[in-house]
Amino acid sequence: MTDQLATVADRIRRARRLTVLTGAGISAASGVPTFRGRDGLWRQYRPEDLATPEAFEQNPRLVWEWYDWRRGGIADCRPNAGHDVIAAWSQNHPQCRVITQNVDDLHVRAGTCNLTRIHGSIWELSCWNGCGAASWRDERVPLADLPPRCSECGGLARPAVVWFGEALRGEDLRAALGATSCDVFLTVGTSAVVSPAARLVHDARRGGAFTAEINPEETPASTAVDVAIHGGAEAILPRIAALI
Ligand code: OAD
Fold first, then answer.
1. CA distances from 107 to 34, 81, 116, 137 (A)
2. Which domains occur in the chain, in start order?
3. Candidate list 93, 119, 202, 230, residue with the active-site label
4. How does pLDDT run across 77-126, given as a tens digit for each residue?
């Protein structure tokens, strides 16, 4: 493992363009549940009941109750040492891009620059009717009224997150695909099964990047990357940073 850490540190030190992709695992040590882990959300709930446009259409109140409950769980969570290392790289490395699938905004709270939240933010709302209102931030926990309403048209508001069956915002997809043109690509704390995030590490590798994964468990990406480091991001990232 020491050799692997030194290799990754050396590659990051020499990289002109560094890209970090993160998933729920980066926030696990902060107390945010993952989706597919032992106590993961998708082991207790069915995504099709709570995280699709059809579910919202059928029962907006139920969907909002679930999101309000998740917001309550995340509100007191703080960024951990893994978020802090990535934030420092994003501030100090000449060209560092961070792509996250997480909606918890812990990367934002850690002060991460050049961040693309491809699945949106649980702290932002948008108009369900698409009346043209820009999405807005509401950090109240719990929310005052469920389901909340659009301040422009008075119709239903929705969480500004990407649900199953929905496309990513065009600009986010472009940023994510563009970030695969890099010298080093790190995939951190993601099960690497949800598209299009799952393909990014493969694109980067095909483009000639050095690729590394940080995850306590094997994933479909583990055998494809140059180095797979088994461990928690909150412990491994500070060790790599210390070697740079
Ligand atoms: P998953 O729950 O699928 O995977 C979390 C990964 O984090 C697993 O591979 C764990 O082994 C790993 N992990 C756990 N603890 C860790 C730690 N301390 N350090 C590093 N890794 C750790 O979460 P995602 O891959 O983020 O989408 O899931 C992708 C998407 O599926 C989510 O954004 C969400 C979900 O459905 C939407 O809601 C659209």
1. 16, 11, 10, 16
2. 1-31+78-119+168-244 (3.40.50.1220), 33-76+120-161 (3.30.1600.10)
3. 119
4. 999 999 999 999 999 998 999 999 999 999 999 999 999 999 999 999 99
